């Protein structure tokens, strides 16, 4: 497991507000690649928005080969944005 500084954690957290795409690398300036987007959650009904990041490319990596998962949630959206 990688130990990140508070600054690095902030840089990683900022990625949740970008338009990430499934199967694409997540690169963080100053850190490098932290993983690949395995799943994008965008539930219009509840407003939940999240990215599931895994340690390997989901196109070729089997689920049993995943060793590290990061879930990034976006902050809440107002009702005017979810309806």
Structure description:
This protein is α+β, with helices and mostly antiparallel strands and 83 residues long. The chain is built from two helices and four strands; from the N terminus they run αββββα. The chain has helices at residues 6-13, 79-82; strands at 25-28, 32-42, 49-54, 69-73. Strands 1-2-3-4 form a four-stranded antiparallel beta sheet. The longest helix has 8 residues, at 6-13. The chain is globular and about 40 Å long. It starts with 5 loop residues before the first helix and ends with a helix.
Give the helix/strand layout.
Blueprint: H1 6-13, E1 25-28, E2 32-42, E3 49-54, E4 69-73, H2 79-82
Antiparallel strand pairs: 1-2, 2-3, 3-4
The helix content is 10-25%
Based on DSSP secondary structure assignment, what is the total number of beta strands?
4
Principal-axes geometry comes out as globular
Classification by helices and strands: alpha+beta
Span between N and C termini?
Answer: 39 Å
Total domains: 1
The biggest beta sheet is recorded as:
4 strands, antiparallel
Please state the CA-atom Rg, rounded to the nearest Å. Answer: 14 Å
The total count of helices amounts to 2
Q: What oligomeric assembly is this protein in? A: single chain
Largest sheet strand order: 1-2-3-4
Helix-strand string = HEEEEH
């Amino acid at each position: 497991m990688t130990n990140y500084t508070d600054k690095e954690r902030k840089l990683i957290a900022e990625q949740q507000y970008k338009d990430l795409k499934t199967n694409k690398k997540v690169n963080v300036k100053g850190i490098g690649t932290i993983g690949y987007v395995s799943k994008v959650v965008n539930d219009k009904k509840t407003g939940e928005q999240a990215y599931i990041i895994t340690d390997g490319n989901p196109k070729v990596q089997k689920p049993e080969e995943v060793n590290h998962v990061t879930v990034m949630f976006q902050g809440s959206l107002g009702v005017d944005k979810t309806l």
